[in-house]
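Can anyone check this?
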Amino acid sequence: MSCKQLRSDMNYAWPTAQIAVMGASGATEVLHGRALKEITDAEEKAKFIAEKEKEYNDQFANPYNAAKYGYIDDVIEPRNTRFRVIRALQVLQTKKDSLPMKKHCNLPL
């Protein structure tokens, strides 16, 4: 539950992870609200919602797209999680974080 923009060092995801701003059902309601209001048949509406949710999950919510754009480092199998976390901690064991100097201090005036 982190990202490179929050300065995390390693980001991994399992293949079943959903990485998106919102869930597929909420996104479908927001993105296709007008089309949903126009559909009167309940069966057709359910079919339309299922189709759009699948489309959203395939395009946006899967971890492979996030890895492609660099938001996560790798998609790993759950059985390899312990090994990958241990290896990441070993790599980061000697890390020195160099922050820029502060422009102003906190002294009360």
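Reply from J.R.: I decoded it. The chain is about 45% helix and 5% strand.
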